[in-house]
Amino acid sequence: MAKRGLVAASDHLERLSTWLVDRGVTPVLDEDTATLLKTSTRHDTRARDTIPADVDLVVVLGGDGTLLGMASRIARAGRDVPILGVNFGSLGFLTETRIDELDSTLAAVLDGTATYDERTMLDADVERGGVSLDRRVVLNDVVFTKAALSRIIELSISVGQVLVTTIKADGLIVASATGSTAYNLAAGGPIVHPLVDAVILTPIAPHTLTNRPIVIPADHVIEVRPRIEPGAEDIFITYDGQEGYPLRAGDVVRVRRAERKLRLVKAPARSYFQLLREKLNWGERGHSPPA
After folding, report:
1. How confident is the model at residue 114 (pLDDT cuts 50, 70, 90)?
2. Whole domain around residue 166: which residue ranges?
3. Is 240 a catalytic residue?
């Protein structure tokens, strides 16, 4: 699966499809990705939403956003389908395999020598009027934000049915360890190694400076209640930066560790800390000013 409209992936898709066919593997492309092919390379075609039900491995060519969209589809399908993310984006913490590493990494998957990272996902359930309204499984984060014209929002946060705090802020990020290097990082939250079984709560521009990010065990249930006064602007909930909608007064959002984990094919011979150095220049010293 390629990012929609990613013309730069066309030649790689054709070469990859031929490579798979030569090894007795049937390539399956979603309908949008198939339009990027210039020749009639042999392949099957499916709707993007049905891909996880019909394949044994998903190869994503694009950025992290493309991979996040497929991760949620795999969660909805209830299948244990691993993802090999190939970076065509500008950063790519999740799509960490470079295009020049694709053949060797995919060969390792086929011959059974590849290694995988298991990433904890988050299960978010929105309750309205005592009834479950919507339920999603996400890889990175569940985010509560204000409307464009709102000055500030108010949220009540509980963990394990114990009140933690009530915040007034531009919003709140509930992030997995994997999502710690996404919006959470931009908002001043901590970097958490993706194998740490934890969830991060990070206020966005809090009105009170003492409302700092907090890391909690992933087996706790986080309950967020929006405090919306009559006539006030909406509070929005967003899932992995992909989809969202406004909440209402009285809604309750419960976020917990999802039952299933997502398997990511690891990039060859690169540790998580090397990725931090490559992607963020993490730990690098700045240049000294001239004397």
Report:
1. very high
2. 121-259
3. no
